[in-house]
Every structure is written in structure tokens, then in C-alpha cells.
């Protein structure tokens, strides 16, 4: 019994075949570039549409964070006032001082000292950010501690290098 034989006949490579292969690769490259440009424009369009919604979600999470921090710091009932302030950098210390003096009654170890003593204490608290905080919560309290809950929402326009 004869086994079927496989016969391979080599073809001669012609310039027409090479030209067709090169043309097909060029067409694929052009199609891929068009696909990339279209994908990039679609991505930019979707990003612009969804940026405001994403920012709203971030602000909403900050509001929830403020509420939880208020509950943990001051306990129940949750009597609080949430305020969003967009201060100029030059007025930041003044605003912090005014907020600290307004919410001074929330201080847990509030002493009934004179107003001048409280003012000096507030000035010291705001100006001395290098003061070492010791004790059990030293690693937790790396930033300034105020009598109110304070969270920053970073403004992308103000903090970007393009909008200096």
C-alpha cells in the first residue's frame, strides 16, 4: 500500500506579490493610526464629560468624611455645620484664626481663661506647626489640630503647573 505523498511546489516570488504585501501592511498601519486617533478623541470626549461628575463624587466623599470625623471627634448628637471656603492663599492664616476663635467652645479641655490667653493660644497653635505632638497618637496627628474638622479639597486649576 502506498502512502499518500505530500508534494511541495515552491513558487517564484515576484515583485507584484511583494508590492501587494507591502501595500497591505501600509493599509493596516494607516487603519491602526486612524483607530488610535479616533480612540484618543473618544477618550478625551468622555473624560471631559465625566470630569465634573468625578469631581462631584470626590466632594461628596469629603462631605461624608467630614460628617464621620465630626461624629468621632465630638460624639452624638451630630450637631454640626458644614462650610466650604475657597480662601486666597494670603488670607489663609487669618481665616484659620477666625475659625479657631469661633469654634473655641468645642475644645474638649476648654479652660475659662481670659480672651487674651485664648487669643495667644490660638496664635501659637496656628503659627507653631513644628510643635512635636507626643503620646499615644503621635503618628496619627502629623498635621495641625484645630477645634473643628478641616479637610482640603485640592483645586486642579490652582495646583497644576500649567495654571501658575
Automatic annotation (TrEMBL):
Name of protein: V-type proton ATPase subunit C
Family to which this protein belongs: Belongs to the V-ATPase C subunit family.
GO cellular component, one term: vacuolar proton-transporting V-type ATPase, V1 domain
Record's subunit section: V-ATPase is a heteromultimeric enzyme composed of a peripheral catalytic V1 complex (components A to H) attached to an integral membrane V0 proton pore complex.
Keyword Ion transport: yes
Entry keywords, A to Z: Hydrogen ion transport, Ion transport, Transport
GO molecular function terms attached to this record: proton-transporting ATPase activity, rotational mechanism
SUPFAM superfamilies for the chain: Vacuolar ATP synthase subunit C (SSF118203)
InterPro entries with a match to the protein in the record: ATPase_V1-cplx_csu (IPR004907), Vac_ATP_synth_c_sf (IPR036132)
The protein's role, per its UniProt record: Subunit of the V1 complex of vacuolar(H+)-ATPase (V-ATPase), a multisubunit enzyme composed of a peripheral complex (V1) that hydrolyzes ATP and a membrane integral complex (V0) that translocates protons. V-ATPase is responsible for acidifying and maintaining the pH of intracellular compartments and in some cell types, is targeted to the plasma membrane, where it is responsible for acidifying the extracellular environment. Subunit C is necessary for the assembly of the catalytic sector of the enzyme and is likely to have a specific function in its catalytic activity.
UniProt KW Plastid keyword: no
Pfam families per record: V-ATPase_C (PF03223)
Amino acid at each position: 500500500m502506498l502512502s499518500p505523498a505530500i508534494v511541495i511546489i515552491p513558487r517564484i516570488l515576484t515583485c507584484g506579490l511583494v508590492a501587494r504585501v507591502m501595500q497591505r501592511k501600509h493599509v493596516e498601519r494607516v487603519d491602526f493610526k486612524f483607530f488610535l486617533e479616533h480612540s484618543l478623541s473618544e477618550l478625551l470626549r468622555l473624560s471631559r464629560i465625566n470630569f465634573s461628575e468625578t469631581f462631584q463624587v470626590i466632594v461628596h466623599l469629603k462631605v461624608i468624611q467630614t460628617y464621620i470625623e465630626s461624629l468621632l471627634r465630638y460624639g452624638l448628637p451630630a450637631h454640626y455645620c458644614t462650610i466650604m471656603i475657597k480662601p486666597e492663599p494670603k488670607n489663609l492664616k487669618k481665616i484659620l484664626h477666625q475659625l479657631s476663635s469661633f469654634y473655641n467652645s468645642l475644645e474638649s479641655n476648654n479652660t475659662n481663661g481670659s480672651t487674651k490667653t485664648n487669643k495667644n493660644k490660638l496664635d501659637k497653635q496656628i503659627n507653631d506647626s513644628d510643635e512635636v505632638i507626643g503620646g499615644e497618637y503621635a503618628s496619627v496627628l502629623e498635621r495641625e489640630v484645630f477645634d473643628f474638622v478641616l479637610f482640603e479639597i485640592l483645586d486642579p486649576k490652582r495646583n497644576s503647573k500649567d495654571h501658575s
